[in-house]
Structures are given as structure tokens and as C-alpha cells.
Amino acid sequence: MFSFIYSFTDWNAYRDTIRFTGLDNFVKIAKNADLMLSIGNTVLFAVVTSIGKNVLGMLLAVALCSRIGFKRLFRTVFFLPTVLSFIVVGVLFTALLHPDGFLNQFLGFIGLEGLRQEWLVDRSVVMYTVSFVDVWKGTGFHMIIFMAGLLAIPRDYGEAAQIDGANPLQEFFRIKLPLMMQAVSVNVVLSLIAGFKVFEQVFVLTNGGPGYASSVLNSIAFQMFGDGRWGLGTAMNLILFLLITSFSILLLTYFKRKEVDI
């Protein structure tokens, strides 16, 4: 409640009094290209990582719920990045993605020099690079939720579909996917919220750079609070809250209509 109030004030470290300024903080944000870029980067990161985590998580869940060998080993391997600290992940990928790091050297070794990039420095690819690292780290968590949804479906449904002549794709999209829609809604909403709240991924890998190319709402708010511009930082946090709330309500409403009782 107090954060909501302070976002409409000039609250900062350089005044002894707090004055109500209405929408002045939000006007400043709208007129500042760097601050608007951080909002766009936040939405881009949330969308890209949500799609990546959920698509890959679903594919892995389906594969690891099928009749393949070493399932327990593969589950452990794919889930392991989830429990790693992002400090460790950041140090690892900073080395891998360095212009002279392993990834560019490997691309050169296999004759794909044209794909070599300055992954954490090039303004056109840096947000996608950070998104890829987050997808790598978080996919295992969503895989586990999808696996729980798949394993909760009675086998009778699949056997009946096979008797009726359904192929594996038809069985998945017409039987399994509608029955595990609760798991889908949980995963999509959680991944989207995590995407909007991104901070440590950017802080560790790029610190918002180069310039403001990979800045996000939380990194800008962090900078504002560090500079003593608390009212403006609180306004950025309010924008983040509104984005999370609006997207979550829309998605939960949509998926609620798609849910099917087992």
C-alpha cells in the first residue's frame, strides 16, 4: 500500500519532505527512452523464456514418461541446473559466451564462423542470450510439473485412444494435453511471473549492459534506489506489479476455461 502511494511522490534521498507529484514519475518514465527500453526488455524476456521453458519442459516430460532407458538418470541431469545458484551459472556462461570462449571457438572449429557473436556485448542479441541461459537453468523445474500432470492421467484413456486407432500425436493433443491443462496453466503463469521478475540473471551476466541494452525493470529499480530516487524506483516497481497482475489474470482466466476434469 505504501509503495503505491510513494510511486506518486518525489520521495528521494535529497529532500527532507515528500511531495505528492501525481503522475509525474510515470511521465518521466514514458519520456525516457532507456526506461521504456527496460520495460520492453522485461516483456521480451518474460515471453521468450516462458515459451522456451514450457515447450522444452513439455518435450522432455513426454520423452521421460515414455518407455526409454535410464529415465532416472536423464531426469536428474535435466533437473540439476534448477538447483544451481545463478551466481555459479552466471560465472559459467560468462566464460562460455566470451568472444574468445568455448562457444565461439566450437563454432569456428566446425566451420560456422558466420554464427560467431559477441553474445553478451552485441546489443541485438544480448537479451536473447540472457533468455537462453535462463531457459537452460529453469526448464527442468517445469519438466517436473509436466511429468506430474502426465503421470496423473489414468492409463485407460491412452489405451482407449489406441484401440480407436489414434496415433501418438493425436493421443497427446486430443487426450493428454486437455487433461493436463492444470499443469500447463501452473507452468505458464509461474514462468511468466519469474520472467517479469528477472534481475539476478541480468545482474550477473551483463549488469544491464552494454549501455541499457539488457536493462530490465528490476535492474532499473535497483539503480534508482541506489541513486536515492526512491519515488521513481517505486513507480518502476508498480509498473512491474501491474504487468504481472494483468498477465496472470488473463492467463488464469483463459486456462480455466480449457481445464478438463479427469
TrEMBL record:
Please give, as recorded in its UniProt entry, the membrane topology of this protein.
Multi-pass membrane protein
One Pfam family of this chain: BPD_transp_1
Membrane-crossing ranges are: 43-65, 77-97, 135-153, 179-199, 234-255
Q: Domain of life, per the record?
A: Bacteria
Q: Give me any GO biological process, just one.
A: transmembrane transport
Q: Which Gene3D superfamilies match?
A: MetI-like
Q: Which family does it belong to?
A: Belongs to the binding-protein-dependent transport system permease family.
Q: What is this protein called?
A: Sugar ABC transporter permease
